[in-house]
Give the backbone structure.
Amino acid sequence: MDNSSPRSYRAACLKLTLTLLGVWAFVSLGCSVLLRAWMDSNMPAVGHAPFGFWMAQQGSIICFVALLIVYAVVMKRLDTKHGYSEEQGANG
Amino acid sequence: MNQDTLNYIFIGLSFALYIGIALKSRASSTKEYYTAGGGVSPLANGMATAADWMSAATFISMAGTLAIGGYAGSRFLMGWTGGFVLLTILMVPYLRKFGKATVPDFIGDRYYSKTARFVAVLCAVFICMTYIMGQMRGVGVVFSQLFGVSIGTGVLIGALIVFFYAGMGGMKGITYTQVAQYCVMAFAYTIPAFYIAIALTGNFIPQLGFIGEYIADGPPVPFLEKLNNINQELGFAQYTDGSLSMIDMFCITTALMCGTAGLPHVIVRFFTVKNVQAVRKSACWTLGFIAVIYLTAPTIGAFSRVNLINELHGTRYEDAPEWLAQFEKTKQITFNDKNGDDIIQYTGPLAYRTSDGNLAIAESSAAKATMDLSDDASDPNELEFGADIMVMANPYMADVPPWAIALLMAGCIAAALSTAAGLLLVLSTSLSHDLMKKIINPDITDQQEVMWARIASFGSLVVAAYFGINPPSAFIAKTVAFAFGLAASSFFPTLLLGIFSKKMSREGAIAGMVCGIGFTFGYIVYFQFLGGDASNYLLGISPEGIGTLGMLINFAVALFVNSFSPDPPAEVQAMVEQIHIPSGAGEAVDH
């Protein structure tokens, strides 16, 4: 195991985690609850659905899936860069 | 072939499949019993976790809750999927690296204390019990519909089946069984939605029909506008507005999200994959599979609302569709002809009956309160039904082919059984492994441990069945929401601080957990069982959302107590450093 740069690895992880959490809070609690009324009246409707309502029932879920994909991909890249990858020869 | 025969055939076939898989991989040693010996592929684990996740609350209750609550129902949609994001990026990769089989195990080791472990076991028991109560209710609703018996009898039948099935396979059985269950559930849930979407909106994809146009009668109108109009005419809040205050909506959603991230039975799932990278991949798959169902649920809710009102409201009782009688037989829908005109009238909270017998809609609830109305006049609604039956009644309303209804019944049963079995396993593990072996008597053999696990699952099932028959709240999703509130107020802060702060001491953690769950549990019991009045809600937060406050209390108490208690020992601090390094996670369970 190569623990050459745990400090910079952890800093990068933390930055990614906080960024993703920011987006997460914005799309769910932000767009769909706190700012919903504003979103409904100021953002374009999705099909015939008001934007805030659509975010609450559909959009936020789509964003969540996207967030997890980004997380898995970026973390894998970070692992490889810092020598923590365990994927060689594995079939996972 | 009639519907009942078809139902039995589909359910029989699906059961033969699950039990076949469970028997084939019958667990022998304890290590396998708990976590399937490690090394399940991320895709399979993702599907199994999704099946675990799709409880009776999701599968049976959520669409109905959305149909009745409209926008307010989104709290469940966002809460249960958004929580998965928290779980994945804040919890599971680190817990997996730590490599212990259960959450109390982690808390006991991280906080170097038997007391902490004991408090964690207690929290896990409370959370799982509350959750299983909801599931047993779901099992009851399904079996009641299937056999035409009362919900109580349905719960008892279901409890027997769950016990047989969880005691048998351990998690190995459950992992592959649950892959099969996910497939049954996903088809069962989405196929009726396709049929109904075509019938109502002419669009094959339900999600597009939902934001598209309603074409079933008359000129096309936007579907959601149609729904808002129907709701308003009958005296309900607009579908796209819902009836919850913003603070309540915010708190419930947050409690559900953080609760998800602290739910022991989901966290345990991720101990079955090979390494930390596989955990992340597995979580992606899980949420993807969950999203298939969660993106369909709001469409089913909205479609069934329109169908229900079109088919029943204003219909003469003799002309009502055949399925109504079926649901009346099991008392899941009741019709009480208040004005004796033989016409079914379904109305909301703003409707009232004028002195000459006509229906009218008040401007607002305040305006209605000023009117001098008799009980019957102030509530002219003649049709009572729980949110929990919507998903099952939905395909009947829409004339979906009988085989799709049979598949749906099989899916409902799979949903309720899989979660109940998974929870039972965690409960029995907590009691046998964490309580008996690690705290009370470290000398018991593996065999005795498995025996204790079986005794514990039997005991918990009896309690859960009791509360399934006498549920703590009107519908399943709400009962389950309490479990999430308890998890949010106990495990979420403790795990988070334990992972991200190496200075967090056992004193802080224990005090935080006790205060958090104590406050939340007390609030729920007071307002749900002891007749507390809704006007006394703290800041207007209902018991469903109080977990958010409980969580803040937990954080605050933990940090406060921590500020004057000694630092954790050096080896614990080193261990916390180590769990942030993803490589070298080791085998799934090594004690």
About this structure: Chain B has a mean pLDDT of 80. Residues 7 and 120 of chain B are 42 Å apart (CA to CA). Strands of chain B lie at 213-214, 221-222, 333-335, 351-353, 359-361, 383-385.
